[in-house]
Amino acid sequence: MNYLLSKTYPSMKFKILALTLSLFLLNCSKEKSKSKRLPFSVDKNLKNNPVFKKMESENEIQMGIDSEPPKSKKTTQLIFNISSEYICEPVFWKNTDTLNVNIVNHSGFSSGGFNIQIHDGTYEVSPYHISDDLADNEKSSTFKNPKQKLILNQAVYRPNDSIYGYVEFEKTEYDSYGNIIPHKGKGYFRGKIEYVK
User: Which of 35, 86, 147, 159 stands 20 to 30 A from 165 (CA)?
Assistant: First the structure.
């Protein structure tokens, strides 16, 4: 199955990403979050950070939906919830001016990570996990933001631009089952912004 995804349908990853983010954004629209968008900082020299040079010498992380190791270069150098196995997929959706930077791990049956929504000089970080076992009546989680920081290499982005960033955040999730789940992320990411219709 993974072979078919990567060989027969080369654009399947972005179709999976589109579905994943569509569900995520729909969920966010229902979410009663106690956090708010914050302004991000701009550092035009960020892409010259040695971390990105090191990433250029390393191959991208292989996801569960990849049949063979990717030939592209690494897009993240970060830790989220004790794992470093994430890739960066930045996208603009058709007819929107919000940039979605998806830091994600695709296992083949589920996707998880966090999303950075960037709009009009502000941003919001939202952890998520989506599986193929979706419950229609499951209520969305709520979050609190004790800490959040984002630095980008420029203030405004367009499709096909390269984005370089540093993110640092802590966020507490309160799910519909009464669980309290701490989330923590810190590190660097980069990618070329795709336009998804």
Answer: 35
